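Please supply some protein, with fold tokens.
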Amino acid sequence: MTATTENLFEHAYTALRKAQPQEPGWLSELREEAFENFRALGLPTIKHEEWRWTNLKSISGTDWSPAGPVHITEEQLKPYLIPNDDEIRLVFVNGHFAEQLCKRPPLPEGLIVEPISRVLDSDEALQLKLARYAEQTNPFTALNTALFTDGAYIRAGNGITVETPIHVLYVSTVDEPAEISPRTLIFAGESSDIRVVESYVGLGTAARLVNAVSEIVAKGNSHIRHVKLLRETDATAHVGWNEINVERDAGVTAHSICLGAALARNDVHAVLAAEGAECTLNGLVLGRGTQHFDNHVVVDHRLPHGRSDQLYRAVVDDKSRSVFAGKVIVRPGASGTDAQQQNNNLLLSDNAKVDTKPQLEIYTDDVKCSHGATSGQLDPNAVFFLRSRGLDERAARNLLTFAFANDVIEHIKIDAVRNRLEEIMAERFAGLLGG
């Protein structure tokens, strides 16, 4: 690690520890170990293979301080809410719990939806699970563990089904360069079924680093539907790590929707840890201006008869850039694995750029695995066909672009989220759906 980078985050770590109230010893030890790991690892550079398409100079060259609590109104939050009368909502502003903005109706017995800060002393399961799945060998994961102030803790007991989406909003609003480290732990007990939406929202124009980590655990025969929605400002560098652990006959469906940020790196690491585990990972990038979105996905099949599907699509305009690197690992003995991966990219400008790297690593026989990637512009024949049916050039191109992107959105099985995203896309591609 360079001296500059070390000093920057040493300052942030020291400031946080001084500001934090008394916390359990196990968490203090966890933080110290994590920061030592970060010191040893340092920030990656484009010389590291996994980061060769994403330059972090905007992060390593800024003096970050921990963001303090700020009051915002529900009116400011309104554009980012999901229209749903039954919504369960947790809100964190600059990493601090904002109870006045939450919506917490009576919950089913056995369902816990709380800020981590409120259950540190009372929930033994939290101590056993927090930071036990996401490996601290990733520098940003280690940094988050050392610096997080609060976050969402969602735990569903065995046999619970909750169809109402649980919406967690992480809002950042700062006047000077600041660092925010949201932390999420989602745990579904055996035979449970829950839906969780994580929204990352930016207000204001000052630079900020949002370094988010989510641990998502599905026990036997459970199902988690998860959506990560990125609506950061053009002054935000967002680094996110989603750790997914799927056990016997369980399933996780996770969507990553990238709409806003100056620079965003999303890592998804899914471990299919038992027989019959299933995981579906979908992603959509809508890039414009000089936005840079980097999605790195690893699916690790460790035992037999697992199934995984990946569909990532990007629409890039102006001088924006999308990166996709997807790897499927099939371990020795994981026979009967079915793993499919597809990455499709649409370039709307001659100056837009796409990098894609699908990979398969297979160490056993009797598997069904495939991957593919495409990049290109709109099909001129399809544009001509629509124009021959009465659409002008702009409307024809918008309709085809909307259809390309919506192929990902329509897979989201949380109705309120899917409908809202379709509205956002219709607004962006004006003239569609009555826009």
